From TrEMBL:
A Pfam family: GSH_synthase
InterPro entries: Glutathione_synthase, Glutathione_synthase_a-hlx, Glutathione_synthase_C_euk, Glutathione_synthase_N_euk, GSH-S_sub-bd_sf, GSH_synth_subst-bd, PreATP-grasp_dom_sf
Organism: Balaenoptera acutorostrata
Phylogenetic classification of the source organism: Eukaryota, Metazoa, Chordata, Craniata, Vertebrata
Keywords linked to the UniProt accession: ATP-binding, Glutathione biosynthesis, Ligase, Magnesium, Metal-binding, Nucleotide-binding
Keyword Transcription found: no
Name of the featured protein: Glutathione synthetase
Catalytic EC class: ligase
Keyword Nucleotide-binding: yes
Cofactor entry: Mg(2+)
Pathway: Sulfur metabolism; glutathione biosynthesis; glutathione from L-cysteine and L-glutamate: step 2/2
Protein EC: 6.3.2.3
Domain Glutathione synthase substrate-binding: residue ranges: 77-174
UniProt similarity note: Belongs to the eukaryotic GSH synthase family.
Amino acid sequence: MFQRNADGSAALKQIEINTISASFGGLASRTPAVHRHVLNVLGKTKEAAKILSNNPSKGLAMGIAKAWELYGSANARVLLIAQEKERNIFDQRAIENELLARNIHVIRRKFEDVSEKGSLDQDRRLFMDGQEVAVVYFRDGYMPSHYSLQNWEARLLLERSCAVKCPDVATQLAGTKKVQQELSRSGMLEVLLPGQPEAVARLRATFAGLYSLDMGEEGDQAITEAIAAPNCFVLKPQREGGGNNLYGEEMVQALERLKDSEERASYILMEKIEPEPFENCLLRPGSPARVAQCISELGIFGVYVRQGKTLVMNKHVGHLLRTKAIEHADGGVAAGVAVLDNPYPV
């Protein structure tokens, strides 16, 4: 998001990193055509031509295809782990169709299906309904509620296999809020990017304040500061999927309850980013279009493929802009709060 600084300038600040089931790459590939169409209907052809092209579904499929290629079996499938009741299926289908255009077939299964019909041979090759699997692409399994005992067993089977995982469990954990907070500590980026002070400075400039709530003096001080100035902070649990963060009075109540408990270490505290609101027209199902004060969050899709310790691919493949009215503190597109949008360069 663009942080509004005290001197009136703006700076891009990082909200989070998502390393599992990053959604809307498919739908974001379609939104430029929607906005171009609306502007053309209104006779604004010059403005329509300025809408940036964006095709993350093609880029995401390119990364999965590279992993499939490295696996090295022409008849192997991509296994997409899907939820039982998936409302966002068309977003996923866009990536499936891009893979099919490369003659790579996708099979959709739930964790329960893997538990019942998945197997490994003596070389740890993964088979699903008798079909060899080259890549496992998770669109489920990013929240604790997604895991029954049976589903944990299925995840373990997938992790033990030699199929490429998107992501493996280590990469999923690397995307947690706690890791994000630890990466912001003084000296940490220098360890990961030795001899690159300019890169470290550029990265650190995008970090908002991030504070540990581990037991001890550091965590106690962070809690005291947040209770004293609740409008300056956000309390974040280790959760994905939107709608989990706590703000204002709700945050204060949670901190009062947690401050003497070790449970507090499962949260981090983050400086609240204050973007400059702007007017926009939000179109939602079941309600008339209306002009509202809005803020936007820009997401960048990246594709990262490695083989052992060898980096094979690390590319930016598109963007995602989500816009919501300022009265909503938390919640995204899936929660019915935000809408998919396009950046308009000026």
